[in-house]
Amino acid sequence: MPNRISRRSLLGAAGASAALAPTIASSQGANSQGAAMADNDKIGFAIVGLGKLSLGQLIPGLKVAKGAKLAAVVSGHPEKARRVAAENGLPADAVYGYDDYDRIAKDPRIDVVYIVLPNSMHAEHTIKAFKAGKHVLCEKPMATTTADAEAMIAAAKAAKRHLMIAYRCHYEPQNLDVMRRLRAKSMGKVRQINTTMGRQADLSDPSDVWRLDGKMSGGGALGDMGVYGVSAARYLLNEEPIAVQAWAQTDRADPRFKETEDLINWQFRFPSGVIANGSTSFAYAPTMAFEVICEQGRLDADPAAFYGGNRLTVIKGGQAQPPIPAPPSDQFAREMDWMADVVRGKAPMVSPGEEGLQDMRLMQAILESAAKDGATVKTDWGYKRAVDPAAVVDVPGKA
Ligand code: NDP
Fold first, then answer.
1. Strand partners, 277
2. Per-residue pLDDT tens for 88-110?
3. Domain residue extents for the chain
4. Where is pLDDT greater, at 358 or 34?
5. Catalytic residue among 66, 128, 134, 140, which?
6. 53, 179, 366, 380 — which has fewest CB within 10 A?
7. In CATH, what number does 19-168 get?
């Protein structure tokens, strides 16, 4: 059973990220082994944009969350919004449209606004929510430009509210397990990481149409899927790349790739000497996997970032051990519960706006290098993650 800890030690952990501190269980972690909070004590979330992720994962996730609850919905389709509200027991006045959602400022039921819109709309709606005095959880990729990402961070600071980026893998048990094994150097030093994140995009699916639109997505497969690999290399190593080289391969005759790149491969160099190869595509078979090659063995997470069914194979001394299934958990509930605890002051911020901005800057560097056919682009601008997820986020069933 994880230990509960004081707010003071949490704040201490937030400042000291590099070392693997004793496991810190947020109230969310402790709650995952106990009862959910009373409804009145839960943090209220307004979900903005009722698309696939909101309807398929987030609203169901809020039903099993221990300390977070659905408080309102914001949509451009009033009929759908009223139906979703009614199905989830929300009163009619908890339904907002994009044009009138400034009114949420006067709605005390809403503590957190969760932005689940096409990427190009994240900045505008995040900034609106801060102006209304709310905290914001924003989907990945954080924005479509680094300027927008910086404006979102500035708006959070001006409003004195929290901005968290919805990097669910920072809270997912298997990813945390791998991070902890690497921090403990259980197979010696890491030498190489390979990440492959992609799938086949489909123009007959409206939610892929905007993903293939340069302006709305900000980068096609790279922003949508590749971002998981960019982020994973960094959180697996708990260090930042100092240089990148990248190459793109895009068939412009394919109607999907009029505006965005398809296959992109990149290579990050880290100060420790680790090389991380990343790949993304919107025209290859679905994969969300990573492999970490250490001095004495390999960790093969395949899948590494699916919504469920993730699986880790440990290969040591040439022998593959039986695959370890990730402990069952709702990643989205864990992430929203973490945000709720951040708002309560009971957990440190693990995936702040600055994390989203770092990935944006690295993806920009990847595109810049790819445009120059693999020219080296320096990325040693001095960013350092504030909090190591492995040091603070609990793993169910593990101390
Ligand atoms: P969808 O296209 O399914 O939904 C987006 C919703 O945004 C729409 O249903 C619509 O909701 C609203 N919207 C408002 N304006 C527009 C517009 N001009 N065009 C299209 N939609 C609009 O996308 P997803 O739910 O798949 O993705 C939303 C966000 O979540 C993206 O940033 C994506 O990267 C992220 N995501 C993250 C995942 C994760 O695992 N963390 C997984 C999947 C997505 P309404 O009709 O209510 O107005």
1. 194, 267
2. 999 999 999 999 989 999 999 99
3. 19-168, 173-314+352-392
4. 358
5. 140
6. 380
7. 3.40.50.720
Task: Report the C-alpha gap between 398 and 394 in whole angstroms.
Answer: 8
Structure token pair of residue 264: 């992109």
**Best mutation site among 48, 136, 138, 139 for ligand 1 pocket (most ligand atoms within 8 Å of CB):** 139
Please tell me the predicted confidence (pLDDT) of residue 399: 59
Q: Do domains 19-168 and 173-314+352-392 have the same CATH topology?
A: no
215 labelled catalytic: no
Phi, psi of 43, rounded to the nearest 5 degrees: -80, 130
CATH of 173-314+352-392, one of 3.90.700.10, 1.10.3720.10, 3.30.360.10, 1.20.1530.20: 3.30.360.10
Ligand 1 atom nearest to 119, measured from its CA = 32
